[in-house]
Amino acid sequence: MKMKNNIHKTLITILIIGIITQLSGCSGEPNGNGNGNRKTDQEIIGVVDSLKGVYAPDSRVAIIDIETFLKKNSITIKGESDIPEFKAALFSALHDIGYSTVDSLTALPHPSLGEKHWALITLSVANLRGQAGHSKELVTQALMGTPVKIMKKKGSWYQIQTPDQYLAWTEESALFMIGKGELDEWNRREKVIISHDYTIIRESPDLKSHAVSDIVLGGIVRKASQKGDFTEVILPDGRSGFLPSDYCLDFKIWTETVLPEPKKFIDVGFEMLGRPYVWGGTSSKGMDCSGFVKTLYFTGGLILPRDASQQVFQGELVDTKENFSKLSEGDLLFFGRKARGESKERVTHVGMYIGNGLYIHSSGKVKINSFNSKDENYSQYLVDIFLKAKRVINIQSGSTPIPVSLHPWYN
Fold this sequence. Notes:
Elements: H1 2-23, H2 41-55, E1 64-71, E2 74-81, H3 84-96, E3 100-107, E4 118-121, E5 125-129, E6 138-143, E7 147-154, E8 157-161, E9 167-171, E10 175-178, H4 180-188, E11 191-194, E12 198-202, E13 211-216, E14 220-227, E15 230-234, E16 240-244, E17 248-250, H5 251-257, H6 262-271, E18 282-283, E19 286-287, H7 289-298, E20 302-303, H8 308-311, E21 316-318, E22 332-337, E23 346-355, E24 358-363, E25 365-370, H9 380-384, E26 386-391, E27 402-403
Parallel strand pairs: 2-3
Antiparallel strand pairs: 1-2, 4-7, 4-10, 5-6, 7-8, 8-9, 11-14, 11-17, 12-13, 14-15, 15-16, 18-19, 20-27, 21-26, 22-23, 22-26, 23-24, 24-25
């Protein structure tokens, strides 16, 4: 695997150098400054954009924010990036075609964060926004106990990256900031994961005692002790309390034994019928379409990408050209705008097939629709905008979601 990765990186570097050499070729004629007909600032930006297409084609999961300043034969590179390979390839390629470079590029996580550029989510459900600020768009959420990487700070807001690599902003109050050593220590401790859609952590092992916090399906907290029918837990920020033991599972045992079973996904989906659609939601309190299927798959120990337009690249294509007879329970169904002429296909919605021509999805609320035109819950509109189906589990090829058990942030 390591050898394949090295070969892949080498081929990418060759490709980048080829792109930059082509874009930066010179005619040999003077341009008034004795340096020949070199590229302008704007053309150099085009070179950087070509590199972005290789190293960061999706700005939702990678940061390359670059400004270039050309003076004679020297280029000053300013901005920030979380991809060391991008910086190395850019500076190497520019050097190879005759430019000297001045490095003013900030590597993320930002150096001002010091060692504490990791954090654990301290709220049952933390709202993550596209930009810093309460009025900014809600783009995703993260659950209590989720490990995240901190990229930079802006006032009381932090840009973070979630385990599915999604980038967003959240408030300081949602985070318990730690160093890598402390994250490793958290991962070594005995923990539990919430297996029911919602419960309350209480001050004492009594359902009538005061609440410490709520917690939802998939939330993770440390286990302190067992007291009768209650488990004493410690939250990421040090608060402690008790929750019903039958609402949680041992996290380590869960990661080692959980299986992505479509029947289980369907059972969990049925429990969420009627839950409200929430744009950016990824919790049992409310979720959007991709947040819904992401939540279902997480109960099977798999981390799906965040958005439907990212999820569509997972798995193997299922043949639906003639009808829907080849679909299996658990297959992901994608809807949106079909490709026409120069207009590319655009995925805007996702659901999950549950058998017998039925599928479950979040649209207005979590509900079930049918591909069978004779059924009462048939939707001609959804059939018209159906694009494709992808099988994500039990496949022979194609990209698959990373299991929680193999994700380095959880281990």
